[in-house]
Amino acid sequence: MAGLSIKERRYALEEQFLSPYACRSKDTRGRARGETPCNMRTEFQRDRDRIIYSKAFLRLKNKTQVFFSPEGDHFRTRMTHTIDVSQIARSIARSLALNEDLAEAIALGHDLGHTPFGHAGERVLDSLAPGGFSHNVQSLRVVDVLEKEGRGLNLTFEVRDGILNHKKSGHPATLEGRAVSVADRIAYVNHDIEDAIRAGLLREDELPEEDVAVLGATSRDRINTMISSIYENSAGENRVVMGEKEAAALEHLRSFMFEKVYITPLSRREEERAKRMLSAMYDYFIGHRDKLPRFYRGLAEQFSPEQAVCDYLSSMTDKFAVAVFNNLFVPRSWALTQSDVEED
Fold first, then answer.
1. Domain 6-10+38-265 has what CATH class?
2. In 3-state terms, what secondary structure has residue 304?
3. DSSP secondary structure letter of residue 73
4. Alpha-carbon distance 286 to 280, whole Å?
5. pLDDT in tens, 143-163
6. Cα separation of 159 and 102, whole Å?
7. Chain region(s) in the chain for CATH 1.10.3210.10
8. What are the residue ranges in the chain where pLDDT is below 50?
9. DSSP 3-state assignment of 64?
10. What does the pLDDT read at residue 74?
């Protein structure tokens, strides 16, 4: 490979080692807006870097995964969930000789549009917005429209497609996108179990015995079992699938978590609080568009007030949402100025 640039060497290595079903970096369908190529990085590597340095990615560290504004240092946030998904997706991609750079970029961007207060916040905005709200659609809107002060990140087709289609109901165009979709489910079920045990909502001996027998008693064992199952059932094939036994155990564990953790009297009370806050702010900003930050006022004129308010509310971290709500609705002896509670 003497005489080849760093990027050309990467292309050559992909040709030599990647599966016939992998998406090669040189074969990307490109970007909506043409750009001068980088001499060192592939287009998927550039996308990964753009996502990491985006404002939306930085905000993930203060967004709820399952537990609202957790005080403990070791509860997952949307950021740590994203890192978990990235690691698992790369492991799957590596085992199947897929494009790790593409899988990583999709994983890092898949939740950029998530609301504050986790899926509770998503359900609230979905009930309020005329066209509904879904975090995968909003994540694509973040990278296409909202980042870089309205210019977007101009990501490649393959990364955008993977972000949009990462939910279980989606149909990614690449195997790397499918790897991220299954990695997302593997990650959140396993780390939500750990967080629920840490919070005292579950005991390890309460996990369904039949699922533990199939997948393992620890998070590490379960993740290893599922990745191994994907390899055994997908290597050399145009697919990314888990074995029937392991897939059924994962879905049963997911249902168990809904019953024991996700939908409980405690979680419903927390969701009701999130609903009251987000509903009040939604109605307020719809009726007072002049109180939106300047950037979102521009979006209201370009798209619609409802879309702009959803853009603003979904961009908020948990603590920022509480601060804005308090500033608008909670009487106090002193008030924050608007600049104190506006995002940069």
1. mainly alpha
2. coil
3. T
4. 10
5. 999 999 999 999 999 999 999
6. 7
7. 6-10+38-265
8. 74, 338, 343-344
9. strand
10. 46
